[in-house]
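Researcher: Next entry in the queue.
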Amino acid sequence: MSIESPCIDVCRMNPDTGQCDGCFRTLEEIIAWSRADEGEKRRILAAVAERERAAARVPAAPAGARP
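Model: Structure for this entry, 67 residues:
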């Protein structure tokens, strides 16, 4: 069984989080994916799932808001 990449073709690295806005992977995880074994891919997917949950809990800043 092959584990599919979580890529959703929204390839944009977020400078604030260091993660892709589409798949929530770090650049290192994206680069390693094609060479990773199933265990490493499962670890990456678990990290991605946690990042997605965390992102859903943080409300987005209003348009035009400054940090």
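Model: The chain is about 40% helix and 5% strand.
Researcher: Noted, moving on.
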